[in-house]
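Table 4 source record.
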Amino acid sequence: MVRSPGGSFIVPPKTASPDWRFSVISPSPRPRLYHSSAILLTDGRILVGGSNPHICYNFTNVEYPTDLSMESFSLPYLSQEYDPIRPQILSLVEKIGNGDNLFWLSFKVQDYLTAYVLSVRNMVAPSFTTHSFSMNQRMVSLKIIGVTSVAPPTYGLIIAGPSTAEISQPGYYLLFVVHAGIPSSGMWVKIK
């Protein structure tokens, strides 16, 4: 039985620079043990809930009772101080094909820096979670073919869809545009 469960979250560095290291940020006020779940929300927060380390649903008189509560967790990059460089997706096709099919996406960002800090690397499959494990979680990076300035602060991207069904199986994915390490809110797309 776990006597002091870890409640702290570890955040990876935003860049590959040797000066950046993983950092520990605020712990959860509740221990999340067996049968807990966490999912990524469209706005970038993480919804964490549940905990049941017991054979039965014990709510009292145990060190770690069954907990049916939920909490949302915000990472530092969701802070308002990053709003000027946070992209906002304006339009996106609803269905994307495999096989490097090209598609168009438009977004706006108040302080556009450069195409070198722009990516569509976070296309995330919705997870289903059991026993504290996310069985279907996957992240797919997409290749940006071109960036155009529509009329600042609006920009367009030509993006290649996933190369094969082995890379991204058909189904729904949350797509995020990332600018200078700061993600947009996600939008649902369907891989056909």
